[in-house]
Fold this sequence. Notes:
Largest sheet: 6 strands, mixed
Radius of gyration: 30 Å
Order of helices and strands: EHEEEEHEHH
Strand content: 15-25%
Structural class: alpha/beta
Mean pLDDT: 89
Low-confidence stretches: none
Shape: elongated
Distance between the termini: 55 Å
Number of strands: 6
Number of helices: 4
Amino acid sequence: MAPDLITPNILKELVAANAVNSTSVIGDQGGYIVRVRYGALERLLAARSNKGELSVRKFASLDAVDHFLRVRVNLTHYEVDSKDFTPAERKPRYALAAERLKLAHQAAAYDKWLKAEIQEAIDDPRPSIPDDEVKRHFANKREALRKRITAEPS
């Protein structure tokens, strides 16, 4: 059964109305989740995916949870239970930066190659071939290929 969720905006309104009974930050596999109790209800903090679907929000660190609760929601008191916390597998920042740098170099090399190809075509001393002549030439090639394909037994 899917857990009951609460959006950050609703949580902020509940905090402003002083309606939150308790808030717990619970360590989980891959991050921390936030559980809120208000009235007789208990909800987990939600995040909206790119597709607009709600799911349980996970924070990578306690610093991230603290910043979110203090700054965005204006909630300064909560309990932390980190006994089941296991960090998510993450690449070190330098590895991510190295990947981005590699991709940037590949893109720059491709741009350089493409500009050279274009310049070579511009500098080519041979006369240009009119568009209708090129279209006619390739239409003839396509027709010859079609005839050859239909003539071959299946």
